[in-house]
């Protein structure tokens, strides 16, 4: 891996920076989980990105991308976060389902779903977890029964991110009578289909971040299945690889947060516990280490390699980095950490550290619980017995 940027990559960075300076909203958009208004404002931002050719730069041009390599995607992400651009409301689609569609989808599926995803016309939710199968994805019980040219879906999904306002979901379903990793299929279904009930779930801060989905004989075309029938586990593991090891949490997210943490420490160092300086330095180093690791992964993929079980190490690293970084910020803020940025007596540097901390608490759970990731590392990377 050559970590020096080429002149072409540097020119690309300058192009992204100019566009972001001209288009990023001056004021933050309303939260996309709290209200339909905020959700639609972020959908409009996705359309703005698409109009500029920035919806997903690695996708083929015919599907709404620019056909660029992963290094340029990382450069784009760095400039995106440094510009303070809005969060990606369609991250489940563009970062998870989209790459999986490109790998497993038929030409008809790619033409049908990818351009609408890139344009923000279809916002996607992930419908994998179930009440009895959270971390154990192979334990899902929701079924897909083939009936002619259709599947009939039945079951109960939970913790479906973005599902409160999303348009479509990608879900894992099994053939009746099948068990564990066999008989599973990944099926795409519209959330307004007959028989789908969406029930919001509030996070403890009151935001309806998730939903549970009840599917009562939901009929969808068999052409909505992604990959071969019964091969859903392999398809989902490909999606999970993108989620844990590459695209869901780009390095820029943590590098920008670490830089803000350094600024906070400089402003608060006089009154802070001296030991916190070491924690700040560690967060900075960890953010850069994660960036170098992802650049190495991207370089390997560009050279024809594949994502393997080492994605579990990435997932543990970025989720615990996020949590430690925010814990350090709250320790620097002391009692002020409990104030919101809107509080009249809050200091300017209180910012949104508390919201970030609340979100970081979920990091060791979503995208595969860290306990499960440690089991994967032990069994598949280290060869230890079960």
Low-confidence stretches: none
Order of helices and strands: HHHHHEEEEEEEEHHHHHH
- Gross geometry: globular
Strand content: 5-15%
Number of helices: 11
Q: Averaging pLDDT over every residue, what do you get?
A: 89
Strand order of the largest sheet: 1-4-5-8
Helix content: 40-55%
Largest sheet: 4 strands, mixed
Radius of gyration, Cα only, in angstroms? 21 Å
Global structural class: alpha+beta
Determine the N-to-C terminus distance: 35 Å
Number of strands: 8
Describe this structure in words.
The chain has 386 residues and is α+β, with helices and mostly antiparallel strands. It is built from 11 helices and 8 strands. Strands 1-4-5-8 form a 4-stranded mixed beta sheet. α9 (311-333) runs antiparallel to α10 (353-360) and α9 packs antiparallel against α11 (370-381). It starts with 6 loop residues before the first helix and ends in a 5-residue tail after the last helix.
Please outline what is shown here:
The protein is an alpha+beta fold and 386 residues long.
Element layout with pairings:
Layout lengths: L6 H17 L12 H16 L18 H13 L8 H14 L2 H12 L5 E4 L15 E5 L2 E8 L10 E7 L9 E7 L5 E6 L8 E12 L3 E2 L5 H14 L5 H18 L7 H27 L8 H23 L19 H8 L9 H12 L5
Parallel strand pairs: 1-4
Antiparallel strand pairs: 2-3, 3-7, 4-5, 5-8, 6-7
Helix pairs in contact: 1-3, 3-7, 4-5, 4-6, 6-9, 7-8, 7-9, 8-9, 9-10, 9-11
